[in-house]
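yo, Tetratricopeptide repeat protein is done. seq:
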Amino acid sequence: MKYVLSVLLLTITIGFSQSNPQELSFDTKYYNAVDKWIAFPKKATDTSYIFGFIYLDDTAGFTFNYESKFIETDSGLKKLPRKIEAGLKSRLVETTTDVAVLSDSQLTQLELPKFPEWLSVYKADSTKVSYLKNIGYHYNHVGANNLALNPLKKAYVLDPHYAGLEFELAYAYNALHDFNQAILILQEAIKNDPNNFLFYRELGFSLKNIGQNENAEKIYKKGINLTDDKFQKSEMAINMAQSYYLEKNLKKFKEWAVITRKFTENDSRFDQFLKIWEKELKIN
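structure:
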């Protein structure tokens, strides 16, 4: 059974004033420290460091499992007695401060195994498509698209049309500017599910970024017609307007500016973009 999420009263989601000893380097994003023992930087007034293990729960996301605290001594790191018996966990978020990944030598000093025994609970389903897709989603969600690719590609081999998988994989490819790979994924996705507007949204983005504006325009129009979500409609429209702005194609830019404004409010972020571009293009 997985641990119950407990309230962890640790100030780990803000930046600290850091004491940065030579042995500890607080320069790693939490999503780059998955399956690692890590330490958080301490406040200037503290004498000890909070440490524990970061893992990725496929349903709940990036998680810190609190272990204890340690201090620095002349002979190395010394683990302090744990004062809390129950396992304490904290979900990691965008504002989580950078961490220090503990080296093998430091793990030895702290008498820690390479991996905690309980980690296997969270790896039990690691070969399943659902697990792999979720892991990819969590990496995509924090912008670590390069780390999302491997689990998503594994899942795609097993079941390419698994719900949500093709979108996540194409999204990762687009974010990494591998637009041709995204196009291949999305073309197959649309054959299987021609009414999913998200596929058209991503495909339009891929096509416009390889200079195929006419094809992107056709795809975006299909996507706009497939959803009732005004924000999604306006996002697809503004992307197309931007392409024609960059081309200095006044006729097509005006057309897509009108479409964008059908779905977004005056002085919204997208409307402000249009006004800036119109001024640069000298459109009254």
